[in-house]
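Please fill in the sequence for the structure shown.

STRUCTURE ENCODING:
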């Protein structure tokens, strides 16, 4: 019997990508799901796919604490509480520090950082009561930065530290806290960046070794579910991202930074020119659903 059988799992950003894939896999294992997203149409699609028996959906914005409290209350009304919360909702921006739209930057901070806080804040009382598990979705970006992604990198490093502090606060209450760290996953976020910005693809190709390779959503979902079932402290996808965590002090040395930024003088201006031509620093889908 799966360790998540009959457990209640709240997933933000649950309508697409990794969130939806994790939902599918947990549902197969008998979990009861609370799926939260701002994309009403995509949320309806995953709900229709999984059925209504063990699934509760909520169109809610993680930037709104009151809305997240209502989601948590609905979960308690329907299923009796929350055993696992996966703070997964996240976006990225386009452009360097000099070119990114400041309003897009603010939106990213509100979703990727404030949204994580709001999600955990709302769900935590129930998770504590059930001695459950919190999974904060960070990124390999928490270990090493990439030119052109400063806002995203900042947010993911921030929520990793949030997870570490939260872990200390709730360990004595029987709650485990993990953070998830991925490289490039074939999600809508990465697909849209590749489509909007040809230079983004060039930047991935220029990365050394496997660091620019894209991993399937299915592989990522499998790793996440394994982490949730094992209440892991860290979840990695691909598995070698674990090495980057241990090498983190080296990734900010001059030698490594020079190697990583070798093509930046050529590619970053091209990237910024593409962003300027687009007239936006968010993907079209993100811009539509986040308003």
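FILLED IN BY: designer on duty
SEQUENCE:
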């Amino acid at each position: 019997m799966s360790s998540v059988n009959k457990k209640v799992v709240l997933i933000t950003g649950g309508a697409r990508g990794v969130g939806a894939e994790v939902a599918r896999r947990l549902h197969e294992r008998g979990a009861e799901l609370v799926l939260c997203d701002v994309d009403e149409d995509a949320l309806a699609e995953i709900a229709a796919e999984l059925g209504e028996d063990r699934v509760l959906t909520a169109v809610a914005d993680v930037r709104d604490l009151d809305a997240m409290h209502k989601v948590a209350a609905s979960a308690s009304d329907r299923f009796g509480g929350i055993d696992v919360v996966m703070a997964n909702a996240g976006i990225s921006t386009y452009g360097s520090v000099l070119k990114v739209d400041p309003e897009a930057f603010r939106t990213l901070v509100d979703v990727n950082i404030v949204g994580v806080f709001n999600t955990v804040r709302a769900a935590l009382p129930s998770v504590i009561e059930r001695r459950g598990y919190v999974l904060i979705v960070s990124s390999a970006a928490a270990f090493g930065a990439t030119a052109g992604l400063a806002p995203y990198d900042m947010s993911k490093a921030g929520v990793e530290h949030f997870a570490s502090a939260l872990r200390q606060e709730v360990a004595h209450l029987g709650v485990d806290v993990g953070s998830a760290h991925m490289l490039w996953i074939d999600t809508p976020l990465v697909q849209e960046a590749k489509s909007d910005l040809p230079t983004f693809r060039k930047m991935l190709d220029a990365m050394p070794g496997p660091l620019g390779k894209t991993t399937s959503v299915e592989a990522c979902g499998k790793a996440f579910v394994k982490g949730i079932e094992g209440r892991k402290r860290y979840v990695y996808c691909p598995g070698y991202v674990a090495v980057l965590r241990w090498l983190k002090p080296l990734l900010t040395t001059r030698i490594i930074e020079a190697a990583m930024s070798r093509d930046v003088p050529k590619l970053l201006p091209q990237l910024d020119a593409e962003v300027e031509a687009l007239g936006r620093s968010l993907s079209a889908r993100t811009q539509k659903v986040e308003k």
